[in-house]
Design brief:
Elf1-domain-containing protein, N-terminal domain of TfIIb, alpha+beta, four-stranded antiparallel sheet
C-alpha cells in the first residue's frame, strides 16, 4: 500500500486592513478634508478642528476611540444644538374656538 496524499487547502484570502479616514468634511463650511482629529490617549482627550473655519470640538477619548468616533459625536452634538436653538413652541397647543362674527358681511 502507498501513502495517502494530504489534502491541500487553498490559503485563505488575506484580509487587508482598510485604514479609517482621519480627515473629514466640515459640517459648517463644507470643505472636504478640512477637519482633523488629534487624539491624546494618555490625557483622555480628543480634539477636532476645522482648519478653514476654525470650528472646534473636544471630547473624552480612551484606548478604543478612533477619529471617526469623535467626528460622529461632533455630528450628533451639532444636531442636538440645532434642535435646541430652533423656534420654541408651547408644549401643549390649545385651540380657542372663536364664534363667527355676525357683523361682518
Amino acid at each position: 500500500m502507498g501513502k495517502r496524499k494530504k489534502a491541500t487547502r487553498k490559503p485563505a484570502p488575506s484580509r487587508q486592513k482598510v485604514p479609517l479616514d482621519t480627515t473629514f468634511t466640515c459640517l459648517f463650511c463644507h470643505h472636504d478634508k478640512s477637519v482633523t482629529v488629534r487624539m491624546d490617549r494618555k490625557g483622555g482627550v480628543a480634539t477636532l478642528v476645522c482648519r478653514v473655519c476654525d470650528q472646534r470640538y473636544q471630547s473624552k477619548a480612551n484606548h478604543l476611540t478612533e477619529p471617526i468616533d469623535i467626528y460622529s459625536e461632533w455630528i450628533d452634538a451639532a444636531d442636538a444644538a440645532q434642535r435646541d436653538d430652533g423656534p420654541r413652541r408651547p408644549s401643549t397647543s390649545r385651540m380657542i374656538p372663536v364664534a363667527p362674527d355676525s357683523d361682518v358681511e
